[in-house]
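Backbones bend. To wit:
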Amino acid sequence: MEFFNNINNIFFLVAYLVGGIPFGLILAKMFANVDIKQSGSKSIGATNVLRVVKEKNPTLAKKLAIATILLDAFKGIAVLLVAKFMGMPDATLWAIAVLAVAGHCFSPYLMFEGGKGVATGVGVLAFMLPDVTAIALVVWFILGKTLRISSLASLGALAALIIASYVIYPEIPNIYSHAPIWIISIIVVYKHIPNIIRLIKGQEKRVA
């Protein structure tokens, strides 16, 4: 097929398919025998892994949540590392970053359902813009510790990332556009709409 003769297309497809691997779901099922798609917020992310597994085994819940964060972050980075090693241009790398997040949020293995995209987004953005992402992580940590509301910390960190990207890079190197950052941000905000509604109603749960 002509599609597979273009190496960019291959990387795009791999980024989406690898990004779609639901590590939180797999780990919770494998080690705690629970289906996080049927419990809690029904998200496949680390917060729901922690919340659901904690009911059975608090110690295991923390370990699985950390593993989920690391694997969700690394799955986007892994494809980017290979693409970078093969000399792919920055435009291709940014497309890979966007598609990895899209894969996580709209997984082809879960009927195009998925997680919130935070960990995967952090992973790919840390690869592409480490200084900007470091600022966002500091904001996330402070908000998480003080407010103890995962979604609010994530959205606050996202806002900080967008602002910092414009301050540090008025033009993103080599692509001269913030479009990939905005696309990732829009996907993440879209996946947080239920959380935003609960925040407005004062019903969003705190992380214990």
